[in-house]
Specification:
The protein is mainly alpha-helical and about 70 residues long. It is rod-shaped and about 85 Å long. The chain has two helices and no strands.
Length: about 70
């Protein structure tokens, strides 16, 4: 009776199993993409901080004048 209520009469539907596998693969793909994008974001943030520190290290009072 419990199996009938849960929809398991006749065994598992192969279409449902295939869809479940497809969705699990999609979740894994999206998790991998998220990890890749987080790593790329971290690298871009580090590069931005590095360029900011380079700009801050320029001594404007010692800078040479532009072309006259």
């Amino acid at each position: 009776m419990a199996k009938a209520l849960l929809g398991y009469v006749g065994g598992s539907d192969p279409r449902v199993l295939a869809e479940m596998r497809r969705l699990q693969q999609r979740v894994q793909d999206l998790e991998s993409e998220l990890i890749r994008m987080q790593a790329e974001n971290d690298a871009l943030s580090a590069a931005a901080q590095h360029s900011d520190s380079l700009l801050n290290s320029i001594d404007v009072s010692q800078a040479e004048p532009a072309l006259a």
